[in-house]
Specification:
InterPro entries: Sarcoglycan_alpha/epsilon, Sarcoglycan_C. Keywords: Membrane, Signal, Transmembrane, Transmembrane helix. It holds the Pfam family Sarcoglycan_2_C. This is SGCA protein. It comes from Probosciger aterrimus (Palm cockatoo). By secondary structure, the chain is of the alpha+beta class. It has a domain of about 120 residues. The chain has four helices and seven strands. The strands form two sheets. It has a four-stranded antiparallel β-sheet with strand order 5-6-4-7, covered by helices on one side. Strands 1-2-3 form a three-stranded antiparallel β-sheet, with no helix packed on it. β2 and β3 form a beta hairpin. The radius of gyration is 32 Å and the shape is extended.
Length: about 230
């Protein structure tokens, strides 16, 4: 408790520091990422949990409890946690060290079943309008997250991911130019007439310089005292 984690998928190293003692620990991990066997979940919702820190929702037991609460408002059973992100990484402010305030956590949940009417209504344009007025958004179901999880319903985001079409990839050659052949570029660029651009670039500065010379000569020769 009190540790904050960050890492990089390229360096394969996780560095943690203790918020109380500022002690740091580094650990090298090997992470294997494979695509889901049935593809990406088409229906995804992102919830902002205001009374939790990111390390409190990383354990599997805490995520299972959150999925059970999500199933009550989503009305689906095949829910999966896709991502857990601290609100500080999304532009949130560091909370004051009083009253046990938390940073906030964004939790992305996916399912193959559609959104419930309650979630759709909470993320509708009318609900966003009420949030802009400082009022509570519309909700037609019982909040199964309370009191364990405090959901900021004005920050609810629903996303429907459509499967990307799988097309044939490019056909790669041997990379060796055939003997006796000339390299042909893949596309031919039509010739451009560069004369107008050259004249504009040359004549416009000359015309400005000539006007400045005439103005300076008029001021120095024709505006002298006694003339």
């Amino acid at each position: 408790r009190g540790w904050h984690l960050w890492g990089c998928s390229l360096c394969w190293q996780v560095l943690a520091y203790n918020r109380l003692t500022y002690e740091t620990v580094a650990q090298r991990l090997i992470i294997t990422i494979i695509p889901a066997p049935r593809g990406e979940l088409p229906f995804q919702g992102e919830f902002l949990v205001g009374n939790r820190n990111v390390e409190e929702l990383l354990p599997t037991a805490a995520r299972d409890i959150f999925l059970q609460a999500t199933a009550g408002v989503w009305e689906q059973e095949d829910l999966q946690v896709i991502n857990v992100t601290s609100a500080l990484d999304r532009g949130g402010r560091v909370p004051l060290p009083i009253e046990g305030r938390k940073e906030g956590v964004y939790v992305s949940v996916g399912s193959r079943g559609p959104f419930s009417g309650c979630l759709t209504l909470a993320a509708s344009a009318q609900s966003h309008f009420l949030c802009s007025l400082g009022q509570q958004p519309l909700a037609s179901c019982y909040d199964t997250f309370a009191p364990r999880f405090s959901i900021r319903w004005c920050n609810l985001t629903l996303l429907q991911v459509w499967p990307s079409p799988t097309g044939l990839g490019p056909v790669w050659g041997s990379g060796v130019l055939e003997e006796g052949g000339d390299f042909q570029p893949p596309t031919e660029v039509p010739p451009h007439d560069l004369l107008p651009g050259f004249l504009v670039t040359l004549l416009v500065p000359l015309a400005v310089a000539a006007l400045l010379c005439l103005l300076l000569g008029h001021l120095m020769c024709c505006r002298r005292e006694g003339v």
